[in-house]
Structure formats: structure tokens, C-alpha cells
Amino acid sequence: MIPLCLPATLDSLDEIGKYIVAATTEAKLETKPAYGLRLAVDEIATNIITHGYEETGKAGNVTVSGEITDSSLTIVLEDSGIPFDPLSRKLPSEDELNLPLEERDIGGLGIFLVLKGVDSFSYEFINGKNRNMFTMNLPGKA
Questions:
Q1: Is residue 142 assigned to a domain?
Q2: What distance in Å separates the CA atoms of residue 66 and residue 23, rounded to the nearest whole number?
Q3: What is the DSSP letter of 50?
Q4: Which residues contact 59 (CB under 8 A, 6 or more apart)?
Q5: 62-103 pLDDT tens trace
Q6: Is the pTM of this model over 0.70?
């Protein structure tokens, strides 16, 4: 798939979402996993834009790309915002998930949902860029 480079603004989330829908359609991903992937990508893209750019006063771009193989669909988000590994974030425990919202620690729930929504997630910081990779196994190929 041809990569899509967009300004790192919240207005770009709609175009990123359309890219994910096109990728999941082309890969013939079923509705529920396609939705999980879109939600996961949206969460990380929102974090990139909000925390990696807007809160730091930095301007830049977010690039979304997709690769479809016989067995998987991989979506990659790349940005040059501040380095941040989502996997370094403390995730809520099962006990914390059962607490009322007002009693939970702030943060980590979105990344927890990302990890639940995709078959594989990885992060790397390479050549001055954050690279978040989301992989979904294709039906009957896992």
C-alpha cells in the first residue's frame, strides 16, 4: 500500500481511519478484527499527535503505511515526535480494571486496549523516528 503522510494534527485522524478501512478491506479482514485494528491505530495516533507534538509545541507529520502478505496485515505509524515506547507504560492490572473509573490510576488503559485489539504490536525508535507496528493475522492463516 502507498504510505500516507499527514500533518500531526487531530484533523488527520479521519484520513488515518480511512486508510485503515481501505487496508482492512483490501486484506479481507473480518469486521471485528478490522474494528480492533482501527481502534488501536486511532489510540496510538491520537497519543502521537497529542503528546508527541501538540503538548511539546513541535510540528511534524505522521506517516501511515500498510503491508499485506499472504498471512497478515501490518500497519505502521511513523513520526518524529518525542520518543515514546507505548510498551513502557504501566498497564492496569485485572484488579484495577474492576475498580470504578474515579478510583483508577490515570493512563495506560488506551494502550491496554491497543494490545487487546491486535494480534501483535511492537515499537522501535530508529533513525530519529518512532515506529509503531500493528499486525493482524488474516483469517485461516494464523
A1: no
A2: 7
A3: I
A4: 7, 8, 53
A5: 999 999 999 999 999 999 999 988 888 766 666 666 667 676
A6: yes
Q: Looking at the chain, how many residues does it have?
A: 142
- The one-letter code for the residue type at 97 is L
Binned at pLDDT 50, 70 and 90, residue 106 comes out as low
Q: By residue range, what is the domain housing residue 52?
A: 4-137
DSSP single-letter state for residue 105: P
Please answer whether residues 83 and 132 qualify as being in contact, where contact means their C-beta atoms are separated by less than 8 angstroms. no
Residue 94: Cβ-neighbour burial (10 angstroms; 0-12, 13-18, 19+): exposed
Q: Which set of grid coordinates corresponds to residue 113?
A: 486496549
> Interior CA angle at 39 toward 48 and 85, to 5°?
35
Residue 74 lies in a domain: yes
Strand partners, 64: 4, 77
Q: What is the pLDDT of residue 99?
A: 65
The CATH number assigned to the domain holding 36 equals 3.30.565.10
